[in-house]
Design goal:
By secondary structure, this protein is α/β, with parallel strands linked by helices. The chain contains eight helices and seven strands. It has one domain (3-131, 155-206): Spore Coat Polysaccharide Biosynthesis Protein SpsA, Chain A. Helix 5 (132-149) packs parallel to helix 8. It is globular.
Amino acid sequence: MNKTADYGLTVIVPVYNEEDNMQALEERLGAWLPTSPVKACVLFVDDGSSDASLYRIKEICSRQPDFLYIAFARNCGLSAAIKAGIDAAESEYVGYIDADLQTDPQDFNLLIPHLKEHELVMGIRANRKDTAWKRFQSKFANGFRRMMTGDKATDTGCPLKVMRTANARRVPFVKGMHRFLPALFGLQGCSVKEMPVRHYPRVAGVSKFSMSNRLIGPLQDCFAFRWMRSRWFNYEIAEKS
């Protein structure tokens, strides 16, 4: 039995070599769950970690009934981890937060109420605590993406999002496509809303992003999205037997 069916929201937490963050994740997510506007659970997706992350995840899930996990046989990347979580979730809504805790789980409570009117609600990192170089890369990449996709989203890299599971499952995930969620939801005719959320410096573990996957990769992916957009179609069933 898939336990996520017992919840209204499944929060996906991709984990790759984050053993030093696991205690804080348990504490912060555990403190947020009772305050959530909808009954929520946490689904860790271990992305083939080579450290003790999976061991820590299993420990957490053994003592926390609202924490679940799946584990990859090998490292597949962030987009694959998010996609696996979406595929596994049977709740009406799914959310997403990074394991580095640079965003606050409590800010899900700012996003969730807007799911009544919007299929995707995402954070905008206010007062970002990253280096000037990282902020420049993100600003440039976001500007180029908006020009190429027309999605008007301010900060697609913000790792705090909630969405309707049915629409999330229609997104054709390939490597890097997690950055294009607003545009991909837009292709379905969905409504997208952004809300400012808090941002913090990383205090444990090591960032998995570099210039190649923060800047160069996303620029290349814009061309892949434009190709996909030219071939996208929607359909609506009028009748069935």
